[in-house]
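Hi R.,

Here's the chain you asked about this morning:
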Amino acid sequence: MNIEIAAKLQKRGIILHRVIFVAFLLQRITLQLVYRDLPRKNTIALISFIIICAILEELLSKFHCFNNIWAVRVIRFVQCATCSIMIIFTESTNDSGTMVMSLLLLFVVDMFLVVDVSEKTYCYGIAVALGIVVLLALFVRMTLIGDNKWMFMFFAALLLGAVFICEALAFSDYIKYKDNQVLDERRKFENIVEKNENILNMQNKLRNTNDQLNIQKIDLQRANKQIKEANEEMKVQEEIMRYIASSFDVPKISNQITDSIMNVKKLGFCAVYIKEGVYHNKHSHFVVKTKIGNLEDKIREQMDDIYSHMVDEGAMERIIHDNPGEQLPYLKDVNINSIYIKVLGENDDKYGLFMIGDSRRKLFDDNMSFYNAIIAQYDIAISNVRIYNNMQHMARKDGLTQINNRIYFNELFKETSEKIVADKGCMSVALFDIDKFKNVNDTYGHLAGDEVIKRIASVTEEHIEEHYDGFVCRYGGEEFVAVLPNRDIKEAEPIIQELFEKLCSQIVTYNEFDIPLSVSVGLTAYPEVCDNTEELLKRADWCMYYAKEHGRHQLKVDDGTIVKE
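And the predicted structure, written out as tokens:
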């Protein structure tokens, strides 16, 4: 029996008792006033009983006696016994026993609320105890009153006891039945809960399994992606190595490498810078690949300064992840968040800069093997180009002046002539000779003559190759040739005239001597004057000799009438 539940039920029943008690009092007083013959002693006894019950319940509530289950049981039993005695004494009188029976029913219900009705022993005990009380009351009435209606009262008492016992047993069985039902339902519920828990556990296991499978799937996808990237990287490296092995053209190699990196890594930009003179290049070499507008020019303008700054600091590489715009102001307004800069070359043989960047953050914290491999291949390519170009330079360049020698010039001239003819273009050729060069050697010595030849060669090369995209060569001892592809004689004449004036204004200082320079120049062109490219050099030579024979120190332009005398 749960004491807390029983105490709560008893406390809640006090309100119901108050209503019934008040109704009972009003009813009894009303009946007493209406029916004068109603026994007053019964009314006084009933009212007194009700008042005592109300006071007793208030005291029990105030002193928390409802928590004592045995005290409540005793009080309810006393109330039931008192009501039973009152019924015995009011039976066969002019009084009504209905109200007393109502009170008895009320107290019996309250008593069963505090009795463990699932145990029949309690029920038997209560019924027997009440039966004894009723029999004692019956005996007292027969003794005191002495009426002859004891048989009627006996059977009434017997009937009341039988009703108590039967109802107690029925109520006990009903409670047991309900307890069994509740127990069955609880077991079913527990089974359902257990099954639900098993289902939930299975769901959790399935969920965990799915999570693990998803994680494995993600890991597999990541691994596949890495394998795919690795295969692409290996394929790119193989292509680059194959290209490097078959080419000595640095601009083409640089474009191949930067294009491959951009295609595989999808970067924001990729740039390569090689300083002047690394592979006999006269100018710095730049390759910048990007899809970001205006970024190519910004990078191109800054790479030389970045290279010089890093070399001065002795830094070989630099990774920028935090606010690159603050360290590299030209990237301030560009969505670039990761930058990697690498100085190309080693120790005292640094030759350029490799630079990549992207909008992704922390991109170059790890996995730099691909870029390192590409840079290593690029170093090999530049080394191979250097060796090849040095050999080519030795074979193609004049040992004294370092401009094209006659053998290589013949190859260039043939290739250029064939292209001009095929494209139906034009070409001008100038051939010039140093005036009175024998006197320079005789007067100042052959070393002074060498300085004069080198000065003529350097001025001519700078003027023709760097400014007008032509090519020159040392054609003989003191003879030089300048070729201007895709320029007719009208365009070529002011260029050669400017060169003539530059050469004649030169003064070579050797030891304590100042040696002035003078040249005689002949100029011809295809197809205006000469309709056969193979005769250009011959006609230029005729014009040069014409200038020398007619006073030297002049430019003679071929008009088609000059022939060798």
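The radius of gyration is 62 Å.

Let me know if you need anything else.
M.
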